[in-house]
Amino acid sequence: MATVSVDLLRGELGQKGVFRAAIADSPIDVSALEHWALTPECGALVTFRGVVRNHDHGRGVTAMKYESHPRASVFLERLVSQVAASHQVRVAAVHRTGALAIGDVALVVAIAAAHRKEAFAVCDQLVDLIKAEVPIWKHQAFENGQSEWVSECGADRPEGDRL
């Protein structure tokens, strides 16, 4: 299976920050994202890896599949660009789609900043924004044969920003 290369990500110089963002259907090269994000000006690098776990609310998970809206990358790029510009940080964010196994990385957010507190805070904020705003849904299959679709996307989105 191919790995998402940092070269394939769209990246732009924001007003005050730099970002790369992508929706990917292959494994994410976390090291490449971290390497891209970290520069000599940065004293901190915080990376979040959202990993497929084997349980959810007390039920055993056996399989996971992520599906995205065709415009999901637009939403992701907008969020990442805004965060990079408003906090003067370097941001890389990639979300997987397709079938993932237990232990696979579904989301990576890497934040490089001058100081650790800012990097931690921005990473936490961006992960929450991605879950709430980027139209990606997960389909979980459980040990008991049941399954469900899950998404937080759009719960608090203003009507003008809805898909």
Automatic annotation (TrEMBL):
Pfam families the record matches: MoaE
Highest rank taxon of the organism: Bacteria
Residues spanning the signal sequence: none
Protein name in UniProt: Molybdenum cofactor biosynthesis protein MoaE
